[in-house]
Fold this sequence. Notes:
The chain is α/β, with parallel strands linked by helices. The chain folds into 2 domains: 3-124 and 204-215, Rossmann fold (3-Layer(aba) Sandwich); 131-199, ACT domain (Alpha-Beta Plaits, 2-Layer Sandwich). It has 6 helices and 13 strands. A 6-stranded mixed beta sheet has the order 2-1-3-6-12-13, sandwiched between helices. Helix 2 (29-43) links the parallel strand 1 (20-23) and strand 2. Helix 1 (3-11) packs across helix 2 (29-43). It is globular. 45% of the residues are buried. The mean pLDDT is 98. The protein binds ribulose-5-phosphate. The site of ribulose-5-phosphate has 18 residues, from helix 4.
Amino acid sequence: MNLKQLVGIESAKYIKDGMTVGLGTGSTAYFMVEEIGRRMKEEGLNIVGVTTSHATEEQARALGIPLKSIDEVDHVDITIDGADEISADYQGTKGGGAALLFEKIVATYSNENIWIVDESKMVEKLGAFPLPVEVIPYGSDQLLRLFTKKELNPKIRTTADGNPLLTDSKNYIIDLYLKEINDPKELATWLDHQVGVVEHGLFLDITTRVIIGTSESGVKTIEVSR
Ligand SMILES: O=C(CO)[C@H](O)[C@H](O)COP(=O)(O)O
């Protein structure tokens, strides 16, 4: 079993009957969703899922997981999602799979947020992984110029045919190649104030539990007090 599968299966143990569960996106969250499908079938687990992307919605529907939109639920009990990087103080970046907007919305309304990662995602400081910024297409070249002027090394994310990648909300992603983010809160606040920016991949003060897959000692679970 690979580490992503290991943490995906481990995380599903926190899901109890009757819960509303935020279903993350990506190759790690994939295994968690599969495990929920298995538990529903084999153990009669009964939950409602709130998906964070069209891709996860498709997977969950195929497994027969009952779904509601984020607007149909009062709150989400627990959200389980992957991450691109997690720093020593448990701040994170997400959006490598371009699903950051829905992921952040679902996480915001969730009582608990579990991140599942393999050990390669644990870093001292955030920033080696490009930071995604979701922007509306109108005015996106202006934002690219602004980010360049601020020395944020922006690059529009494209598909294989060279066209800008479109998110589930039909926006663009600008990746910032920063190498190191010295002050994630300052950068997040600045990005929050730029017109045309819909959301960014800095997920700060969000996770409450991190489940890490390690090759030496298996699963390591860390409770993060907020
Ligand atoms: O934020 C995400 C998608 O937008 C993913 O959770 C993140 O990119 C990690 O993905 P993976 O588990 O495939 O490494």
